[in-house]
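Entry 14. Ran structure prediction on the chain below.
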Amino acid sequence: MSTPSLKPITAAEAPKPTGPFHHAMRFDSLVFTSGQAGRNRETGQMGDIGEQVDWALRNIGAILDAAGSSMDRVLKVTLILRDDVTDMAAVNEAYTKHFDVVPARTSFFVSRLKNPDMLVEIEAVAVVG
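Output, C-alpha cells:
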C-alpha cells in the first residue's frame, strides 16, 4: 500500500492568494480548493452576483487544471453568499453554465465577506484522473 501524498497547488491562471494559503491542496486523487472570490483575474474587478459566480468558477477551473483535474470532475461545491444576495436565479444561471452534471452543493449566507465588494466565495472538491 502506498503512502498518501499531500501536494500544494498554485495556478498561474488564477488570482494570487491574498493570505498564507495555497489555491488548493491535493491529497492522493482528491483536490480541495481554497475559497475563490468572483474576481476577474485579468482586471481584478468584481461585478454583479452573476459575474462573480462566473469568475469564481473560472478561477476554480484554472486551479483544478493545475492540479490535474477539471470542472467535470467536481464532486462538491460550497457557495458562501453575502446575506443580502437576493438574486438566486442569477446565481444558479451562472453556476449551471460551468457543469454538464451539477455536483452536490451547499450554500451558506453570511453577514459579510473579506472584501466589501465580494458577494460570493466558492470552494470545491474534485477528483483527479
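Strands lie at 6-9, 24-27, 30-33, 36-37, 74-82, 104-110, 120-127. Will compare against last week's run tomorrow.
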